[in-house]
Every structure is written in C-alpha cells, then in structure tokens.
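Here is one chain, start to finish.
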Amino acid sequence: MRIFGMVVRCLLTASVLLSILASGLDARVVQFRVERRAKVLDGKSFAGAGAYEMLAGKVEFALNPALPINRSIVDLTLAPKNTKGEVEFTADFYMLKPVDPAKGNGRLFYEVGNRGGKAMLRVFQKAKVSRDPQTPEEFGDGALMNQGYTLLWMGWQWDVPEGQMRMDMPVATDHDHAITGLVRGNFIPNSSAPTQPLADRNHLAYAIADANSPDDFMTVRDRPADPPRTIARSKWRFVDDSSVALDGGFEMGRIYDVVYRARDPRVVGTGLAGTRDLISFLKYDRTAANPAPGIRFAYGWGVSQSGRFLRHFLYEGFNEDEHNRIVFDGVIDEVGGAGRGSFNHRFAQASRDAEEFFNVFYPVDMFPFTDAPETDPVTGRTDSLLSHAEARHVAPKLFHILSNSEYF
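Its structure:
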C-alpha cells in the first residue's frame, strides 16, 4: 500500500449550517447542504494551494426514472416520487478544498469509500486513519493538498455500520405494498457462538418479512463445494431483524447459510447514480451553487470493494452524465480484481465479495472481466468492461493495480 501511494503521488504530481441550492440543474443535485465548515489545521498553508477548509453535510438528489440514462437503475420506477415524478434520496459528504479556489489545481480526487470508510489520506499522505481528521498526524504530509487537489468522499451504501459515510436510499414498493424476496446470509464463525449476524461485516440486514415463513431455511457445510446439509427449522430461530440463533450454538470454522424471506428492498443503484451526479455537478456547474468552483478534471479511486464499484460504474454506463458528458477523467481501480459486485439489483448486498471459503456464490465475479472485448466460451456472448464508455466516447484513463491475491 505504501509503494502504491508513492506511485500514484507521482502520477497525480461552532457549526455553521449553510444550504446551497442547486436550482435548475438537470444533474439533479437538488441541494448541497453544508452542516459543518472549518479551517483545516487553523488555516495552515499547504504550499502553493494555501489554506484548506473542511465541508461536511448532506447532498440531496432527485432522479427522473423516465430519462433513458436512468432506466438501468433497478426498481427506480417502484420508489416513492415527489410531485415532479422524481425519486429523492440523500447522502453524507465530506470535502477538503482550498479556501481560495484560484489556488487549487482544478482537479477533484474522489474516494469511493470501502464500506463507508476513508483511506485516501492514509494512502496518499501517510496520515493516521481518522473519520474526521483534526490533527497534523491525521492530515499526514499533505502530498495531495500541497498540489491543490479538492478531496471528496460520499456515502454510497445504505447498510454500513453507524458512524460510516452512508446514503439514505429509497425503498421500492409494489403500488404501496411491501415487496418481498429471498435473501441469503453467509458466515463462518471464528469461534463457537450462540448467535450470528445475518448481514456481512456488521452491516444492516434486510428486514425479515415473516419469522415463520416456510421459505426460510439454514444449511451447514465444511467446504464450499460440499453439498449443504439442512438444519431442522425447529433448531434455529431469528433473534431480531439482524441475527439468528442455533440450538447448541454455531461451530467454529463451519460454513453456514441462512435463506430467508425479506421485505423492503432498497434501490441500491442510486449509489451509482448519486456518484455520477455529484461528480458531474462539481465538475460542470458554474453557478454560485457549486462549493468548489474551478474543477476541470475528476479522478475516482477505489480499493477492493470500492474498486469493484468503479468497475461496475463504468460497465453500466454511469461515466456519462445526463448531458452526455464524461464524469471521471481518470479511474484508479486498486485490487478490485476482475469482478464487479452487488451494486444494482433487488435485495443487493453491496458488502459481499468473493472469497475462497466465505461469501461464495454471490453475484460478484461476473462477465465481462476485461477492458477489451472477450467472448464467453459458454454463452458465446462478447462484451467488455468499457463497451458502453467507449461507444459513448466517455472512457476514462484507467489504472488497474493488482496484487498476487487478485490473480489467484
């Protein structure tokens, strides 16, 4: 990671409530609501970029489901709508920018947070990890800030643990009736325990539709390829909306699956659309509504899960905004492997990945795998990660950074 930070650094050579209305914008950033604003390190000057400030708050979005560019967002048409027929949602944001925009370098560097976290300052500025940096150690050596970059984070998952960057995503319904569907939880206990969580990595779980549904079942295996053995329904039960219990407890090292009927799927694809629209707004809006004027180029960076998010973002056509303009000029996919992820389907669990033993059989490693066209030998289908972006002339400069883990 330290070597990677050095490489990319060379490549990249009292709360105040302020509401900034983005009126009349088709990018549908409806409101950029700054809830906290403060000078970074008491106004310390970062080389030629001068003093920096921190802005944090909420971004309010609205999407028109009828627009062709939004039709790929699963269940968007089933979400609640305002009087304009738009679907509304909000997300946390956190920004570090030069106080004087004229001293910035005109470049936005956006981290797609891995499960709602912040790693950019640690990787690129050798800083101590912090959700809300305050001290010199938490800003590190200032490598990016000395060059005048505007740094940005935004929540893009609804289900991350408390305290992480989050997006409040709309719930899809069927004419005001709850939608239900089967959801699978998967876990391998590190030690014997009476209960286990339904969701991945302490995330929020989809709500249980019926704790006594005949559709619910639990299985256990010792190896991923072993036939699963069903555990009698009388021996396990839901403790609450987030965990299950098993008579005699769960055994260390065994692979358990729980399939249950859930309700209220979130429109998870709004995470992709919100990313598109926020970056487009900051990059192209020239009104006083833009808190970071002067941005000419935008770069996206993601690690592992969030690297896969960026791959998915490119594949599904989100690097083109509502005005057919390019969103990210450059994308750095670090250890995202060849996969994408559960980022745009009903009851998607965005945290799930594809491990050797854990989280097996989730929709993560999906064709196509390569930037250039390839043909699936089973289906005969030919496609590429950049097929849409290249056809629409919105392909970014793309860096894939892999370790031996991704190859294996």
